[in-house]
Design goal:
By secondary structure, the protein is an all-alpha fold. About 75% of the residues lie in helices and about 0% in strands.
């Protein structure tokens, strides 16, 4: 039995010497590998985050401008980013058409209210449209911005809207 322990002990001593010699090399290899992985991770993160940051900045600029503006152009950074930009551009296009339809519906509703108001009295028929046309002409002569001219046009169409709630006898 003592010889078995001696054989195991001699193997343990021999392996311990080999391990003591290899351990600093293994630690150096592991540290080098970790440093390389860290550098590769930083580079990969930057290459992935740069297009996303650019996309975020452009989206923020569009949101701040309240315009659908020029659509984004896909870069050759990755297929995923190109797909994301393409999807975003389709979304912006559908939002633009939905906004145009909504604006047309609002203008139609305002015109219908103005027509209903003008229909109450033959004497004032077309009055709201004439006030609107004159208001737009004056606004343009004053060099008012086009968005403000549009507000002026719609407001002028509705300038007598309060008459709808007043009885015909009083009018």
């Amino acid at each position: 039995v003592p010889s078995v322990f001696y054989a195991v002990d001699s193997v343990t001593l021999a392996s311990r010497r080999v391990l003591q010699g290899a351990l600093p090399k293994l630690i150096a290899i592991a540290c080098g590998g970790l440093v390389l992985c860290l550098l590769a991770s930083v580079r990969l993160a930057r290459s992935v985050s740069a297009p996303i940051d650019r996309l975020s900045r452009e989206l923020a600029e569009m949101a701040d401008a309240h315009e659908t503006g020029p659509l984004l152009t896909p870069e050759a950074t990755s297929r995923e980013m190109a797909t994301l930009v393409e999807t975003f551009n389709r979304l912006v296009g559908s939002l633009s058409s939905a906004r145009a339809e909504t604006d047309a519906a609002v203008v139609g509703a305002i015109r219908a209210l103005a027509a209903a108001l003008d229909a109450r009295d033959a004497y004032t028929a077309g009055h709201s449209e004439r006030v609107s046309a004159l208001s737009v002409a004056i606004g343009r002569q004053m060099h008012v911005s086009e968005s403000d001219v549009e507000v002026l046009r719609l407001g002028a169409l509705l300038h007598d809207i309060g008459k709808i709630g007043i009885s015909d006898v009083i009018l």
